[in-house]
Amino acid sequence: MNESLSAAVRDALAALVKWREERLDPEQAQESFQALKARHPGHWMNMVWEQETYGGSVHYDILMADDGGTYSLSYCADEELPWPARGLQRVNESLVLRVNDDPVFINQAITSLDHAWSTLHIGRHLIHMSLIDQEIRDSGLVVTDEELAEALLGFRKKRRLFSVEEVERWMAEHGTTQVQLEQHLREEVSREKLRRRVAAGCEEAWFQSHRTDFERIQVARLSVPHQDEAWRLYEQLSEEPGRFLERAQVDFLERGGVGELFTTLQRGELEPEQAERLFSTPPGQLAEPIPSGEGYELVRVLRFLPARFDEATREQVRDSLFEEWLAERRRRARVEWFWGAAEAAELPAMSL
Length: 352
Fold this sequence. Notes:
By secondary structure, this protein is α+β, with helices and mostly antiparallel strands.
């Protein structure tokens, strides 16, 4: 062990003793740990922590690496639970999973689900939440008071909470406090700033390499419940495409209509077979019936729109770049799932 690493180890051990003596909570310890890292930029290190289920005491470890491996540094006071006994404890039942040794607790999961209920894979969403929070913490990304105030204003407008009384009532109904609400909004703002940072400078090049995915087509469409009926209407209307809107009006008056009549579709958001069928149909003509949900759609092509790199497209590109960034982080992450049992069930990230 060289002198530089020895100095870092001594500094880390002193920090562990200090955290225990001052009874720092994880957020305070994290701030102190970031200062420790800044003092020793030449050495990789990470902080992990564990909270006892019953006593509530927090135990911290610092991991520090050199060319030959990784050192695990810990400090346990005489009156605290010894390390062998820690290994015999049941997993904290509020713990859902760990990602790269960072815990995700049930209260975090429930809060995040309010904003991701439409996500197809909730497990993947929880892993992403942890990876994003780790990057925000490690990069030192900061939310200003002005950004928090703007986020709070947007939150109130979205939920039509125009008075202090309405905000207080909403917090009471959702079992939260002003401090918890502000912390949640800080996290949201931080994640948006991280998304923009990840994509910065790469948007236009990514758009050019995926340009065809952003081609659009404006159509009129009519939902039909059965395949035979869809093909019969297709044959009738193909000879007189101008009657399409008349038929849509009859369908609306007789059945109530389903879905939007006019819409704009983007090639990259369609199934390849659907995209090929629609984008090969000349404007003014009908495409062959397309399976949709439990029925079919008759689609009349109105016009094609070329791909444009406008602000809406830039936001879509940022989303795609951020998803690629998350997929790479998820591929390299160590993920452990806990299902409220005594043992942890490991689930490889590849299977998510």
